[in-house]
Amino acid sequence: MASTLSVLLHCTLLVLLLAQPTHSSTIQKPKDATAEQKPRSSSSHTYIIQTNHLAKPSQFATLERWYSSMVATHSPRAAMNSSSRLLHTYGTVMHGFAVRLTEEESRRMSSNPGVSGVYEDAPYFTKTTRSPGFIGLHEELGAWPESEFGDGIVIGFVDTGIWPERASFNDSGLGPVRSSWKGKCVDAEGFNASLCNNKLVGAKAFIAEHGGALTPRDKVGHGTHVSGTAAGSKVRGASLSGFSRGTAWGVAPRARMAIYKACAGFICRASSIAAAIDAAVSDGVDVLSLSLGGPASPLHEDVVAIATFGAQRRGVFVVLAGGNSGPNASSVVNVAPWMTTVGAATTDRVFPAKLLLGNGDVLTGQSLYTLKARAALTSAVPLVSSPCGMDDLKPEKVMGKMMVCSKSAWRWRGMSIIHGPPGDVSVDDHEWFRDAVVAEPFTLPGLVLGYAAGKKLFAYISSVPYPVASFSFSCDTVTGQNRAPMVAGFSSRGPSKFVPEILKPDVVAPGVNILAAWSGESEFNIVSGTSMACPHVAGVAALIKKRHGDWTPAMVRSAIMTTATTLDNFGKPILDNGVGKDGRGATYATPLVAGAGFVLPALAVDPGLVYDAGTQDYIGFLCSLNYTVNQVRRFVPETTSCPTTLLGGVANLNHPSMVVIFRAGSRVRTLTRTLTKVSEDPETYTAEFAAPEGVTVAVTPRTLEFRHKKEKLSYTVEFRSDVKPAGAWDFGHIIWSNKNHHQVRSPVAFNWQS
Ligand SMILES: *[C@@H]1O[C@H](CO)[C@@H](O)[C@H](O)[C@H]1NC(C)=O
Ligand SMILES: *[C@@H]1O[C@H](CO)[C@@H](O)[C@H](O)[C@H]1NC(C)=O
Ligand SMILES: *[C@@H]1O[C@H](CO)[C@@H](O)[C@H](O)[C@H]1NC(C)=O
Ligand SMILES: *[C@@H]1O[C@H](CO)[C@@H](O)[C@H](O)[C@H]1NC(C)=O
Ligand SMILES: *[C@@H]1O[C@H](CO)[C@@H](O)[C@H](O)[C@H]1NC(C)=O
């Protein structure tokens, strides 16, 4: 496996703009990383050695002794070298260890009968005032009071660490963490364990800062932001230099947080991520939030998929960011069905700023320009359209001018800021970012324009010999006027490359211009990415867990998915802000873009019915993917054979969404699903469905009568299709409805293959 994980942060801070050559959300792999990924046989490299602990020979008293003996046998050199002994051992969500080996030694290691997998430790790169209110959480009624604000539920964060002194982590009014909790805070450089309290109940580090200490302190802000979003305490008067002023809340403001640092700077390592997940589950977290991801790889080669499988098997709900590589199709990552995969959507909050052109036209963009921002109307200066390369931003070229850069020229923006042109206009240069949704924290007057406004700007520049413009900043935060949510252009889309018959992402949540706690000098920051969407769902899961302590992770996921909305605040279908050029054409967000829709916690705590799944279902799923028994054992070590392939294949996993692939010669597909009743009173549900033209649907039975709680009833759906062009996708849904009290909705994606 040679993959790259990134912290899925869409927007970079100015300080990072100097260092991060990126215009896209995902921080790209530096060029020299490829060399690091392909170790020459003589040089050593970290490998994750997964073992089947059931195969431990009895002569070894402990697993550690067995592992040391393996290292001594296959790499005497490593065994001698104290600095390259076992870097991590794993014993909760998976078994094994991490060690430095040469490529040749790693090959020998993989032939050891007790070893079930050897994975190269790829360098994984690191990729709210309004949002709780916008997803329908109110202090006085509904999901918040009903679930006691998630009180006592522990959310674990595998991320860049924490800045514990922030007001969002104040434990005022919180009782002690439950006595079964095994986590703790470690003393480390720059991090005194006494910084922890009844809110921050654990902090450990599994990766050292570059050239520095092993400390849970967050040097970059990402982990602090993510944990504040999911579980931050109420902070009055929160804002970023006046923007988004209001009360900042996490989604589950009384949940506790435990921090497992596996990313230093923006780089995470698979070996550290697995160690972090292992420790979190062993400590007893209820929910795990991972705002990171790599390129999609087959599940049995993906250490994060294997480790999170172990976590869900122990009852931990795991949520991950879906990636920031949209709007390209098949860009979604973290696609295993036991993961809850989250895409990013806007909220109804915008930070408008205007560009006044010399011809009188007014173009509206967005800006978080903070200095002298109050009602500042700058004077008209010459406009220069520039490639914005390093050479173009020399002081003599930019002084006294307003630079117009395309967003792909972001890499040099830091330079322009240092040299100080009077203005900086960024234009989204891809048609698919029709609206400038991501606001930027400029330190000089600046704003971001969408593609359409950018076209008008360039037309003006080329129509007159001396184009001029000025800015108008109001420092206003406007809410409730724009259509929202809208799926962000950068949010990664399905279908999943390796498991196309599982619909991903599962849901979308607020991930654009999110205000939450930050590291260092800044108490708060406003940033964007599927990294920010992921902890919103972690918070919702904490609220559900508080109400329903005995629910499996699959039940929690089902509740979130089947109650998600496909409509926006105007009552119209949620729009896709990143329609690609692949001919799909629709401007509404299809299930490949938004999954089941936008999360609504008020409904998710009371879904009526759920689609449950557990280890046996997932074994059937993995066997249906035609994995060998040895590959299935990486997930379930006690597997001896593959007797249970799912009847009808992968698509028959009891997932809350459906993918129906019609192949030539099989224009009829039948899927089976099982619903579990989770509400108290007897209820009768009837099926309603929608299907595209040329597809007929038959649900059997049409009515399900549930008498008691936990009762399970199954139904089948037969889909018949006309022939359609190979590669085409179309969409529908199935809703089990109980006189409008409960609506259990599943999106259905149809695909035609030759
Ligand atoms: C011991 O391991 C360290 C770190 O992997 C490496 O830098 C060093 O060269 C190794 N020493 C020997 C004698 O192999
Ligand atoms: C935590 O919040 C309480 C109540 O608002 C306040 O009195 C206290 O000073 C805060 N503690 C810290 C460390 O900021
Ligand atoms: C941690 O903080 C406590 C209380 O402020 C102090 O007594 C202790 O010396 C500190 N420990 C370290 C290692 O700095
Ligand atoms: C998206 O697809 C386009 C065209 O195929 C390609 O040029 C671009 O690099 C892709 N973007 C990402 C983020 O993969
Ligand atoms: C697994 O193998 C069977 C038999 O060859 C084939 O029909 C099926 O499509 C394969 N499934 C997948 C997911 O590749």
From TrEMBL:
Transmembrane segments: none annotated. Keywords: Hydrolase, Protease, Serine protease, Signal. Residues 46-126 form the Inhibitor I9 domain. Residues 29-39 have a biased composition (Basic and acidic residues). One of its GO terms (biological process) is proteolysis. Residues 25-45 are annotated as: Disordered. GO terms for molecular function: serine-type endopeptidase activity. Residues 150-580 form the Peptidase S8/S53 domain. The keyword Protease applies. Residues 1-24 form the signal peptide. InterPro entries: Peptidase_S8/S53_dom, Peptidase_S8/S53_dom_sf, Peptidase_S8_His-AS, Peptidase_S8_Ser-AS, Peptidase_S8_subtilisin-rel, Peptidases_S8_3, S8pro/Inhibitor_I9, S8pro/Inhibitor_I9_sf. Residues 652-749 form the Subtilisin-like protease fibronectin type-III domain. PANTHER family: PROPROTEIN CONVERTASE SUBTILISIN/KEXIN (PTHR10795). Belongs to the peptidase S8 family. This is Uncharacterized protein. It comes from Lolium multiflorum.
